């Protein structure tokens, strides 16, 4: 077969195939209640700090694990518990990434995980809630508050698992957890932006 013809035929076949589309609901009132586990491949914990007043520098953590017990009728009865491996931290600078794992910063060897365990879930809108819980980081536990926005839910067309997703934001002071390197030149306030995906367990 002519190579050019074969390439064209392959492209035409892909373009003519039915699109894979997720049938996601965006109404939190229609979400299935139950026990969920973090889907780590599509869960990202992002953070940013103001760097010398010039730029808002960003990084991420990955490999998150944990559970969500979701009560659609009584959201306040829902509970969340997540664990974040500190050594998963990544930035666009390999040197900085290694530095952040060191004892001067997160000390990933001594404090391997950060955890968040919810204490209260308060609905503040049809698709929004405020979650208060205990954040443990760098060996220190402090109460923190996160704003949670429901994005969507439905059966993932690729793995056929019922999935629910949220956008989460919040602000913490790193010095509260003993991470004080370069404060105030690198801001004490750390902005969090989390994409959380959870799969329903049978």
Automatic annotation (TrEMBL):
InterPro entries: Lipid/polyisoprenoid-bd_YceI (IPR007372), TTHA0802/YceI-like_sf (IPR036761). Transmembrane segments: none annotated. The keyword Nucleotide-binding does not apply. The keyword Signal applies. It holds the Pfam family YceI. PANTHER family: PROTEIN YCEI. Keywords: Signal. Residues 1-22 form the signal peptide. It comes from the Bacteria. Residues 35-199 form the Lipid/polyisoprenoid-binding YceI-like domain. This is Polyisoprenoid-binding protein.
């Amino acid at each position: 077969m002519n190579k050019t013809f074969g390439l064209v035929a392959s492209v035409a076949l892909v373009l003519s195939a039915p699109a894979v589309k997720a049938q996601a609901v965006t109404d939190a009132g229609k979400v299935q209640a139950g026990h969920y586990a973090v889907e780590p491949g599509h869960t990202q914990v992002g953070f940013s700090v103001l760097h010398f007043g010039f730029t808002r520098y960003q990084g991420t953590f990955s490999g998150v694990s944990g559970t969500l017990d979701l009560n659609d009728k009584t959201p306040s009865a829902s509970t969340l518990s997540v664990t974040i491996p500190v050594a998963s931290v990544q930035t666009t600078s390999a040197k900085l990434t290694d530095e952040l794992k060191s004892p001067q910063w997160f000390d990933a060897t001594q404090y391997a995980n950060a955890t968040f365990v919810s204490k209260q879930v308060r609905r503040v809108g049809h698709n929004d809630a405020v979650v208060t819980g205990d954040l443990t980081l760098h060996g220190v536990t402090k109460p923190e508050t996160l704003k949670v926005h429901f994005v969507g839910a439905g059966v993932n067309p690729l793995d056929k698992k019922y999935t629910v997703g949220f956008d989460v934001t919040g602000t913490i002071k790193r010095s509260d957890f003993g991470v004080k390197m370069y404060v105030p030149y690198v801001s004490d306030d750390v902005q969090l932006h989390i994409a959380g995906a959870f799969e329903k367990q049978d």
